[in-house]
Amino acid sequence: MDSDLSNVEIFTDGACRGNPGRGGWGVLMRYKSEEKTFYGGLLDTTNNRMELTAVIEGLKALKRNCRVTIVSDSNYVLQGVQQWLPNWKRCDWRRNSKKPVKNIDLWKKLDIVMQGHEITWKWVKGHSGHVENERADYLANLGIDNLADEIRFSPKEGQ
Question: Is 143 a catalytic residue?
């Protein structure tokens, strides 16, 4: 381990209203006593895509290589990173069935943004009162809510 690396915690969550449907992602990032939160959303997406996007956006926000603890309630993300990803890369991004990996665009982005960081992955049960996970869930839902506001208040074509 590199002792010069900063220790950062990233709590992530994705949400969808309908699956597929309107989705949002949320990130709570903590470095020492400082916190940063951010979120976003998409019109037509899936919960798994939002879970992946949250992790990608959290890692993209880092300005330098860090020692990162990523906390997520997504088994899909954690199993993908810890179990499936190395084999997918060896097999040209194909599953054992020889079919292409689902969400390959996001898995490739995640693979890139993980480079240079020392990452520890932690799973927490969603909606179980874990304070930071609940905050990430709240942010993911803000991503959906703000998306709905943008749609509702966007100018009509031709105006």
Answer: no
